[in-house]
From TrEMBL:
Its EC number is 2.7.7.41. The lineage of its organism: Eukaryota, Fungi, Dikarya, Ascomycota, Pezizomycotina. Pfam families: Aminotran_1_2 (PF00155), Tam41_Mmp37 (PF09139). This is Phosphatidate cytidylyltransferase, mitochondrial. It is an enzyme of class 2 (transferase). PANTHER family: PHOSPHATIDATE CYTIDYLYLTRANSFERASE, MITOCHONDRIAL (PTHR13619:SF0). GO terms for molecular function: histidinol-phosphate transaminase activity; phosphatidate cytidylyltransferase activity; pyridoxal phosphate binding. Residues 460-785 form the Aminotransferase class I/classII large domain. It comes from Aspergillus glaucus CBS 516.65. Its cofactor is pyridoxal 5'-phosphate; Mg(2+).
Length: 814
């Protein structure tokens, strides 16, 4: 199967114009996946409907390669698709995704606008120049037109310049398209430059995956690592719009295709081998059930040369990560890079890494640094690419796309009323609002209840007018709720507040206010809320970690935090989650005060109180900002108030910091409907509704605390009991040890076969074998307790989870 000499990638020529200029005759044939001939012809017929010249094209996604565990599409997805497409998709109706590589984007869009004006949003009316500028200058250089019907088939197509595509494949500038081509796709029109660049991309993905893996692993682990690279920094994976099992679903259904892509490359690497006798069998590559073992030589010299051959843009990020880690002076670092780049060609051919690469390859934190570099590569381009979607596709199509993504993420669990979602810490009892019999807000809850002035009526919000940019009345209501005088006799006023789109806007605004990109750092205390790291990556701010004390109930370690702050003046903020997520424990006030009282550090202490209303009364430190000018306390209406859908968060802080935050926000960041609903929720009458729901949640939380320990295979509760969720261990056997394998298997079995979704948290620090369970309604808790018992019993017996239900039902019936 060896196709080329192992040194073709030492100095590839990307200026080729013919396939005959590739290193060998069969070079890159591994990129071509075999699919049904009629289906392939139907896809090609779609391309022929475009008069604008397409130089390179591929189809990808679940509409082309079925994924295991993926949600079914709509039967009416394709208006009148050819029989070959319907047969291939087995009636599931999946939109088919394409990427078109073109020579000149403006010329291409000019021709396409003339033929298919209806494919474009209102942006198309501005002409091909504006369209091409939006494509090329923002995000990853791709222009998407979704929900287009061609040949009776619903498609989404993205347009990219060939030069941009080849550069991303060879250099990993954004990994946006490189990531797509690291997985099996169906190439419909090939191009020699793209084939060469993509072979470099595949080899780079393989090398990075090897740096992330141990000495021995399975094929499934290898391909899952590769498939997961492009999702590491994708902001969509941090939001409830993508299936968290996406990578597993992709690889499980395409083992043979992944093997076709990567087996020839593996056989050409000197430090990696298939060490399974099944590899000697005829046609083993085409066996989807085969999952052979692979081993690699982790010698620093050989791995060091893999580092030196990584894509240039990505390698540069990794080098800068280590410059900061080793605190190498800039001049010395530049000299070191120059020496490495001027190595003799013979040394390069022998795969001998230089001293710096060997040092990196032998570093114990290599996996973390590589993952950080990947996230920095992907985060910003993918975020901007997603943000420009409403402009290029139009708001209607963008909304439809997000709704369908969420539907797949939720797995349609809510449709039949029998499934239970205990994974997102939502309030299962609903909004903390007094509703009438029709489910509408009662007028008495918004008219004259609090400030009694000019609040808009919920039924008529004056939507023809812009909302109040200052939201003074809403801020006053927050002050009324949090001025408890437990921690100070001073009052907070609207001057102390910033309101934003969830707490996430405040997290991001604080980073932009107080941190210089590429220079400053924040300190977090894992295990903790993941959005701090997401926002830091987006803003190119490094993260220093001082873990919570897992042996002491995940409490803060203020002495260690203060030592770290004293040693590193580049740390500008400390993020403290209280009650913690996923730990559910309230952080002691005196520990927060120790950090605030640091004798030399002048940074900002941010306390995230998203779950504070589930903690004992008087726990909130919001009013304490009147005493501490460098304290910020964040809260949200998403949890106890049951208003996750309106995305409303608040930051309490000193007036100077509040002014800075308010100066950064968009003028009308809070819409009139959001403000009106929030004001209604904070009125005295609706506060009583929220407290009533909270008491019911606390009752069910106490029930879980009492009943879960009675189930064989359930271990300790980790953390505390101050939120609307619990963190609990699952054991490898009754009275056994906490097990990630069992916890992940239980999580997957309950979600896929039992209709109960919780959140696996076993990979977080101190959370081995743990799942996080949101406290639901009485009915939901009853179902969860039943299903977790069935699933754990089945896992411990090694029985089939689905058939075990019948056994349990028979036993209970008797």
């Amino acid at each position: 199967m060896r196709e080329v000499t192992p040194d073709w990638d030492a100095n590839p020529n990307l200026d080729i114009s013919a396939f005959s200029e590739l290193p060998t005759k069969d070079f890159g044939v591994n990129q071509h996946m075999v699919i049904n001939q009629e289906f392939k012809e139907a896809l090609r017929q779609i391309l022929w409907k475009f008069r604008a010249p397409i130089r390179y094209a591929f189809a990808y996604g679940s509409g082309v390669f079925p994924q295991s565990g993926s949600a079914p599409g709509s039967d009416g997805c394709h208006p009148s698709a050819p029989a070959a497409i319907k047969n291939m998709q087995q009636g599931k109706g999946k939109m088919i995704d394409f990427i078109f590589g073109v020579s000149y984007s403006q010329h291409w869009h000019s021709l396409n606008l003339h033929q298919h004006r209806d494919h474009y949003s209102g942006l198309g009316s501005l002409g091909s120049y504006v369209v091409s500028q939006v494509q090329d200058q923002f995000g990853a250089g791709v222009y998407f037109n979704p929900y287009i019907t061609v040949n009776g088939t619903l498609i989404k197509y993205g347009v990219v310049n060939l030069d941009t595509l080849c550069k991303d494949l060879s250099n990993w500038d954004t990994m946006y398209l490189a990531g797509r081509l690291q997985k099996p796709v169906k190439i419909l029109r090939d191009h020699p430059q793209v084939r060469l660049a993509n072979q470099m991309n595949l080899l780079s993905a393989l090398r990075v995956a090897l740096l992330l893996l141990p000495a021995e692993f399975s094929e499934f682990e290898l391909y899952s690592t590769i498939a997961g690279l492009s999702y590491m920094g994708d902001i969509r994976m941090s939001l409830p719009a993508e299936d968290p099992q996406k990578v597993k679903n992709i690889v499980s259904g395409q083992m043979a295709n992944f093997r076709r892509l990567y087996a020839p490359l593996i056989e050409n690497l000197p430090n990696v081998v298939f060490n399974d006798p099944r590899c000697t069998q005829r046609d083993w590559i085409d066996d989807p059930e085969t999952n052979v073992r692979v081993s690699q030589d982790v010698d620093p010299v050989k791995r060091g040369n893999m580092v030196s051959r990584l894509p240039p843009a990505f390698r540069e990020k990794l080098y800068f990560q280590y410059q900061a880690r080793y605190q190498i002076p800039r001049a010395e670092f530049e000299k070191m890079k120059e020496e490495n780049s001027s190595k003799e060609p013979e040394a390069f051919r022998r795969r001998q890494g230089g001293p710096f690469e060997r040092r990196i390859a032998d570093d114990s934190s290599l996996k973390h640094e590589v993952e950080t570099s990947i996230m920095k590569t992907i985060r910003w381009p993918s975020t901007v690419q997603s943000a420009k979607g409403p402009v290029t596709a139009g708001f209607g199509k963008s909304w439809r796309y997000m709704r369908e993504k969420q539907k797949k993420y939720k797995g349609d669990y809510k449709d039949d009323g029998t499934n239970v979602l205990l994974d997102a810490n939502e309030n299962a009892y609903g909004p903390g609002l007094a509703l009438n019999a029709e489910g509408a807000l009662q007028h008495s809850t918004v008219d004259g209840d609090a400030t009694g002035s000019s609040k808009p009526d919920i039924d008529f919000l004056g939507l023809n007018r812009y909302p109040d940019p200052h939201q003074v009345e809403l801020k006053q209501l927050f002050c009324n709720v949090r001025n408890t005088h437990v921690h100070t006799q001073k009052n907070i006023t609207p001057d102390n507040l910033f309101v934003g789109v969830g707490s996430d806007e405040a997290i991001d605004a604080l980073l932009r206010c107080f941190c210089v990109p590429g220079k400053d750092k924040i300190l977090t205390c894992p295990p903790t809320y993941g959005m701090y790291a997401v926002s830091a990556d987006v803003n190119d701010v490094a993260i220093v970690k001082v873990p919570l004390d897992a042996a002491n109930g995940f409490q803060l370690q203020p002495e260690k935090i203060n030592e770290t702050l004293a040693a590193d003046e580049s740390i500008k903020m400390v993020y403290i989650c209280s009650p913690g997520n996923p730990t559910a424990n309230l952080i002691r006030k005196e520990d927060v005060q120790k950090v605030l009282e640091h004798p030399t550090w002048n940074g900002i202490v941010v306390v995230d109180e998203a779950y504070i209303d589930f903690a004992p009364e008087g726990s909130s430190l919001a009013e304490w900002v009147a005493e501490w000018p460098n304290l910020v306390v964040m809260q949200t209406l998403s949890k106890a108030f049951g208003l996750a859908g309106i995305r409303l968060g608040v930051a309490f802080t000193s007036p100077p910091i509040a002014r800075l935050l308010n100066s950064l926000k968009a003028p009308y960041n809070i819409s009139s409907p959001t403000s009106a609903i929030a004001q209604a929720a904070l009125s005295p009458k609706n506060m009583s509704v929220m407290r009533n729901y909270r008491e019911q949640i606390v009752t069910q939380r106490d029930r879980l605390l009492a009943e879960l320990p009675k189930i064989p295979g359930v271990g300790r509760f980790l953390g505390g009991y101050d939120a609307n969720f619990l963190l609990v261990e699952l054991l490898d056997k009754p009275d056994g040890q906490a097990s990630n394998k069992i916890a992940l298997a239980a999580y997957e079995a309950m979600a896929e076969k039992r209709g109960v979704v919780v959140r696996f948290r076993g990979k977080e620090l101190g959370c081995e074998g743990a799942v996080r369970v949101t406290v639901g309604t009485e009915k939901e808790v009853t179902k969860f307790l039943y299903e977790i018992r069935v699933v754990l019993e089945g896992l411990h017996k090694g029985a089939d989870i689905g058939s075990l239900r019948e056994e349990v039902n028979k036993t209970e019936a008797n």
